[in-house]
Amino acid sequence: MADLAHRNASLDDMRDLWTLMRQTAASIPCSIESESDQERALTEIMKCCTAEFSPVAFDAKRNLVGALLARRDELDWGLRNVETINVSVAAVSESHRQHGVLKMLIEAILKRNAPVYAEVKAGEAQGLAADLKACGFSLAKAEEGAELYKWEPPAAEAKAA
Known about the structure:
Helices cover 36% and strands 27% of the residues. The protein is built from 6 helices and 7 strands, in the order βααββαβαβαββα. The chain starts with a strand and ends with a helix. The protein has one domain: Aminopeptidase. The protein has helices at 14-24, 35-51, 74-80, 101-110, 128-134, 155-160; strands at residues 5-8, 55-58, 64-72, 85-92, 116-121, 138-143, 146-151. By secondary structure, it is of the alpha+beta class. The chain is globular and about 40 Å long. It has a 7-stranded mixed beta sheet with strand order 1-2-3-4-5-7-6, with helices on both faces.
């Protein structure tokens, strides 16, 4: 993990994020087979890149190797003025899955000290659920085909933020 760096995603990362999404679609899992699926995925990448909530990881050669695409829950923000973060996509290149990339990205998003929700779809093969649990997430809801995990900042930190 020492050769990895991370920062927030920007629109400049769109091409690399799309490449990563195509490479990891089967293990996320995420359908990008049809034109409408691709349009939906690209729209989500764009929204997450502009939201400033999405950490991305780079290797020593500055290749994008992981992303935790997330954005603010607009309903919580609009109705209650509460910042809640929803993770929509977690993707790590196969060559970096055993290097702690997901955990590093999860820890980066937790530094915002806001509640975070992350959905883990059935068939996810990157170890997202295990990394979420290791970072203090708990299972909030389980349905056929997906599990929803939630993390809340400790009360003292949430008040200080």
